[in-house]
Amino acid sequence: MDRSFLFTLFLLFSVVASTISADDDDLLIEQVVSSDGDDDLLPHAEHHFSSFKARFGKSYGSAEEHDYRFGVFKANLRRAKIHQKLDPSAEHGVTKFSDLTPAEFRRNFLGLKRLRLPADAQKAPILPTNDLPTDFDWRDHGAVTGVKDQGACGSCWAFSTTGALEGAHFLETGELVSLSEQQLVDCDHECDPEEYGACDSGCNGGLMTSAFEYTLKAGGLEREKDYPYTGTDRGTCKFDQDKIVASVANFSVVSIDEEQIAANLVKNGPLAIGINAVFMQTYIGKVSCPYICGRQLDHGVLLVGYGSAGYAPIRFKEKPFWIIKNSWGENWGENGYYKICRGRNVCGVDSMVSTVAALHTTSD
């Protein structure tokens, strides 16, 4: 076997091993990425931190807190370089989460409640796949609302749910209506009867299929403007059935097969999916296609499209990719969106996919 290939393989293994040998928390990251070594990068950390604070409006209550956050920031600088090596087709760097520890990030900005779908979940029918378009994006067809921001609340599952129903409602009625995540956060406590304690729990997480079940039972969701998002789960349920604008007809889970996922996306609208968000904390842009990524799902997002050719410079070939709408605001990723490569269930992206159909209701 070619020695240069073996040496390259050894270097890759060394990078992966050095990442995994750290604490599990260290697998989440984010920061400034440079081709220079750590010795050159860290002396500029104070400048990077000042720029970070100015860009994202960060301030701290005391000198001790400031110094602590600066320490976290420097640790994340090192981790971001590792992420860039493990995911060279994407760009990783400083994000608005760069002063958070991985544990803080997971606690406040993820929120997918469980790692698997209910055993009794209805399965989506198998669809034909021979005439699928090469590229497809529901944003081009008017089925996707603007990027929202869940804030420091583990309510990603609610945003994934509303996004899917917004798209389904558009397909059914021709109306694009922004729906209320806060209604789900405040009012949805749907549980899986087969798993004790597995309930939708506001800022402490939930599951999209459970939220669809709640919405079906409640009769539907209100508009965003009628039941606005607060980013907390300390309020009471204020649901007004007279203000329902979108209702669920049925929902189902989609096969892990990527052609079936694409077919359901094209036919039924944006899909609610789960993903492992380990590389998303540091993501800035381009197509993410990490060499190694866990499939333990911890974040709910919305699949809105796919592309046929996202260039991966290290692998010297075109990479098809999924287009994902996130709920961390437009000042994250590619204006609030994430691209991840297709083909091998990277980061568990194909493992938890659900589709919803809407009843024909119209808003006033």
Automatic annotation (TrEMBL):
One of its GO terms (molecular function) is cysteine-type peptidase activity. Belongs to the peptidase C1 family. The keyword Glycoprotein applies. Residues 49-105 form the Cathepsin propeptide inhibitor domain. Keywords: Disulfide bond, Glycoprotein, Hydrolase, Protease, Signal, Thiol protease, Zymogen. The lineage of its organism: Eukaryota, Viridiplantae, Streptophyta, Embryophyta, Tracheophyta. It comes from Quercus lobata (Valley oak). Residues 1-22 form the signal peptide. The gene is LOC115974428. Residues 132-357 form the Peptidase C1A papain C-terminal domain. Pfam families: Inhibitor_I29, Peptidase_C1. InterPro entries: Papain-like_cys_pep_sf (IPR038765), Pept_asp_AS (IPR025661), Pept_cys_AS (IPR000169), Pept_his_AS (IPR025660), Peptidase_C1A (IPR013128), Peptidase_C1A_C (IPR000668), Peptidase_C1A_papain-like (IPR039417), Prot_inhib_I29 (IPR013201). Gene3D superfamilies: Cysteine proteinases. This is Uncharacterized protein. GO terms for biological process: proteolysis. One of its GO terms (cellular component) is lytic vacuole.
